[in-house]
């Protein structure tokens, strides 16, 4: 499936999908995540990754 096709099926722009895929997305709506997982036939844990924030500058 193309990026454009996936974005269309999820109901977001290809640019928004690119930010979710490549970063630096800070958040994702639960509804968007639910549709994304439905389209990809996966679970949220299959597409989410947690990274520690850089707190050295604080």
Give the topology, please.
Blueprint: H1 3-10, H2 14-22, H3 30-40, H4 44-47
Helix pairs in contact: 1-2
Task: Please provide a written account of the structure.
By secondary structure, this protein is mostly helical. Helix content is 55%, strand content 0%. The chain has 4 helices and no strands. The chain is globular and about 40 Å long.
Could you write a compact summary of the structure shown?
55% of the residues lie in helices and 0% in strands. It has 58 residues and is an all-alpha fold. Helix 1 crosses helix 2.
Terminal Cα span = 42 Å
Radius of gyration: 13 Å
Helix content: 55-70%
For the secondary structure, the number of strands is: 0
Are there runs of 5+ residues with pLDDT below 50, and where?
none
What quaternary form is this? single chain
Number of helices: 4
Tell me the major beta sheet: none
Give the overall pLDDT as a whole number: 88
Identify the notable features of this structure and list them briefly:
globular, 58 residues, mainly alpha, 0% strand
